[in-house]
Amino acid sequence: MGFVGLQEYASIEGALGSLFGSGIGIARMDRVAGGDINEAYRLALTNGKCIFMKANRKENASFFAAEAAGLAAIAETGVIGTPNVLCAGTDEEGAGRSFLLMEWIEGKGRVKDYWGVLARQLAAMHRAETRNFTAGGKFGFSGDNYIGANGQINKVYGSWTDFFRECRLEPQFRQAFRYFEAGGRKKITRLLERIEDILMEPEYPSLLHGDLWSGNVITGSDGKAWLIDPAVYVGHAEADLAMTELFGGFPQVFYDVYREAAPMQPGYERRRDLYNLYHLLNHLNLFGRAYLPSVMRTIEEYAL
Ligand code: ADP
Q1: Helix or strand or coil: residue 263?
Q2: Could you tell me where the DSSP H helices lie in 78-113?
Q3: Closest Cα to atom 15, ligand 1: which residue?
Q4: What is the mean pLDDT of each run of 10 residues along the chain (304 residues)?
Q5: 211 catalytically annotated
Q6: What domains sit in the chain, N to C, each tagged with a CATH number?
Q7: Which of 183, 255, 170, 266 is nearest to 212 (CA)?
Q8: Is the beta carbon of 31 within 6 A of some atom in ligand 1?
Q9: Which of 51, 98, 218 should be mutated for ligand 1, with most atoms under 8 A from CB?
Q10: How far from 36 is each of 76, 164, 168, 243, CA to CA, in Å?
Q11: I want to staple 225 with a disulfide (CB 3.0 to 4.6 A). Which of 31, 37, 118, 156 is the partner?
């Protein structure tokens, strides 16, 4: 997927020379722990600056184009911190790996009310204008992207429930088909038919981070929470909130302040697990059977 405005380079040296001046190169390269898809590095440059680099196989260059497009969309809302992308490329002249360079983020300390500030900023992001992201439609995104290492389809839809069924649950169920017995498959069909009865159309479409768990929140240079590694699309803000609850949750103050800033439609708790079924299915497809019991529990919860 191409991304307008993203400069692509054929070597890391070429990229650094063009970004920082000829002769500027890598003085030191340290691996950063934490990511599960890409290799991450802190590059200390010969001019004293530090930048962040992600690298992957050449074939996965599209991961980085999609990530850059997602970070640019978040940045465009202007209400929440996210790293500034410097460039992407494939190191044809070196190891042949694709890379993404961005600003190095290192918060020295957190602002007071860190989670409350994040909640207000996320609510503002969810209220931001979305017209630029969906090519005339209401939900979806201008290009497909990734959720983890799995593809994420983002066609443009006028209905949130149709979008969620056809671009989120159905593709994951198709990929996971082999895990289910005949009885389970029937329940899945029933569940997909009933989505309109469970989900609601939102009051307004929202740009979503799309993969909002604590590992994708880091402290920025201003001491506030910044968003990294997004899987953006325009959808119902509730789906972002639901995801924050899937792996441990954020502190309670985050939810209290979010609800004050952006009142939620009644019945969110009944919809939450259906949103998260998408992520559980994605984990089932990426990491295997260990996720099947939680997928089945969610299906049972809705397919009575
Ligand atoms: P992956 O795509 O493999 O999931 P992440 O985007 O989660 O990788 O990044 C891996 C780790 O690198 C994160 O957990 C975070 O701590 C760190 N990181 C991500 N972006 C930056 C950045 N711009 N500056 C400094 N550290 C970063």
Answers
A1: coil
A2: none
A3: 34
A4: 63 93 95 88 97 94 94 97 94 88 94 98 98 92 96 97 98 98 96 96 98 96 97 98 96 98 97 98 98 97 82
A5: yes
A6: 8-103 (3.30.200.20), 114-302 (3.90.1200.10)
A7: 255
A8: no
A9: 218
A10: 27, 26, 22, 18
A11: 118
Judge if pTM exceeds 0.70: yes
Which tokens sit at 43?
Answer: 């590059």
- Residue 73 in tokens: 């969309």
| Residue 152 burial (10 A CB sphere; 0-12, 13-18, 19+) | buried
Q: What SS3 state is found at 157?
A: strand
Q: Which helix (H) or strand (E) is 195 found in, with range?
A: helix 195-198
Closest residue by Cα to atom 9, ligand 1, is 35
Q: Which of 229, 232, 283, 287 to mutate to test the pocket of ligand 1 (most atoms within 8 A of CB)?
A: 229
Closest ligand 1 atom to residue 67 Cα is: 2
